[in-house]
Amino acid sequence: GASGQIVRRGEWVRRTATARLKRWRDEGLDAITMAVNLSAGQVRDPGLAAMVGRVLQASGLSPACLELELTESILLQDVEATIKTLQGLKAMGVKLSIDDFGTGYSSLSYLKRLAVDKLKIDQSFVRDMLTGTDGASIVRAIIQLGHNLQLTVIAEGVETTAERDFLEKSGCDEAQGYLFSRPVPVDQIEPLLRRGIGRPGGAIEPAHDL
Question: If DSSP codes are grouped into helix, strand and coil, which group holds residue 208?
């Protein structure tokens, strides 16, 4: 079925991505990690943790090198099964993050049980934070919430130095967006990494420490 094809394609994507990451790390770019999105179908697959384990074993990478992202909307689908799956991934040492945080309706009690590592502030809040008090207040609240839960907070969609400076003053840990780089083909990523985008704490999406 279509869901099975998505899961199989997901394994191929992860094998390809982790193989590339292993090559970069072997060539001296050993501070970078890689973030890969999870679809709703993949999260619902009971074999997801086993698949990720196979991918990591084949690549020879440490689980801490891989970050898996899921959106808040996925969290609302079969919550208990999702928590079980993510706890299995977490037990392996894989990093977990919630993408587009603030746009859904996830319960804070579920957020704590998921034991994720990172929250990513949705770019809609980043766009609004310098044009009105509500946007700024939401961004600061998410940063404070994340830090109170001992999570790393990343801002998405950062395009200007003014946005970067506001986030830095607000205590945001990392940022990603066009200010640092537009999406590029894989063969153009390595030069960006060697210029500093992949320094410790950064992900090759790319993200930057603030």
Answer: strand
Task: Identify the three-state secondary structure at position 118.
Answer: strand
Cite the beta strand spans of the chain per DSSP E: 34-37, 66-71, 95-101, 118-121, 152-155, 174-175, 208-209
Measured distance CA(108)–CA(103) in Å, rounded: 14
Q: What residue type is assigned to position 135 of the chain?
A: G
Q: Distance between CA 125 and CA 139 in Å, rounded?
A: 6
Is residue 11 a contact partner of residue 54, using CB atoms and an 8 Å limit? yes
Q: Which two tokens stand for residue 112?
A: 């704590």
Q: What is the rounded CA–CA span in Å between residue 184 and residue 129?
A: 27
Amino acid in the structure at residue 204: I
| Among candidate residues 20, 32, 26, the one with its CA nearest the CA of residue 196 | 32
pLDDT digits (tens, 9 = 90+) for 108-134: 777 777 778 999 999 999 999 998 778
Which residues fall within 8 angstroms of residue 78, CB to CB, at 6 or more apart?
Answer: 44
DSSP state for residue 6 in the 8-state scheme:
H
Pairing relation of β-strands 174-175 and 118-121? Answer: unpaired
Residues 113, 46: Cα–Cα separation, whole Å: 18
Q: What is the CA radius of gyration of the chain?
A: 17
- pTM metric for this prediction: 0.79
> Pairing state of beta strands 174-175 and 208-209?
antiparallel
Count of other CB atoms within 10 angstroms of residue 200: 9
